Amino acid sequence: HVDVQDRGGKGRKNPKRRNRRGDRKNDHKKPLPAVIEVVEGPSEEELKALKKAELVEKAEALGLSKSGTKGDLIERIMNAGPPAPVMFDLPEADFIKETIDKLAGVKLFQRTPERVAHRRADLIRKRTVFETSKPIIETMPDGVLEVEFTLRCESGTYVKETVHGDGGRTQPSLSSLIKAKCDVMWLDVGDIHAD
Prior knowledge:
Layout: H1 4-7, H2 44-49, H3 52-61, H4 70-79, H5 93-102, E1 107-111, E2 124-132, E3 136-139, E4 145-148, E5 151-153, H6 159-164, E6 170-171, H7 174-178
Antiparallel strand pairs: 1-2, 1-6, 2-5, 3-4
Helix pairs in contact: 3-4
């Protein structure tokens, strides 16, 4: 009589996941997120060390009133909120159309997307975009551009990532080509071709 657990069969105490095709040694770690540097304004001590003329310049740069005593200026600068976010211009509609047209025939290099990384091997897959349709571009009331287009791709292509780039894991992506953030609003599979 042989005990199944001693033999290492089903029910063993410390099951190890077998390596799957595509697994890499020490390559299972996800890339670190981009470092975001938070820049804080000057401290009260730093502001007190400045001359009044320098405080006036700082207040002027922040769009604050530059009159008053040194203490008033320090208080105004300390209470000023963070600077307004910088707005970037969206690419022209013609440029977006040209870029989508140029995607036809492009070979994509797609690393396993974050959304499926927990169940797929971390590989770089080479996929081709065969053709694209003429995009329809609409400007929404809030200024956002919505683009509708059709891609015909090789089977196994991560289509959403072809659009938004998945943080650089798909190269090239529409987002990287037009240098703007892209999100997929909806996705339909139009047809499956047998050729």
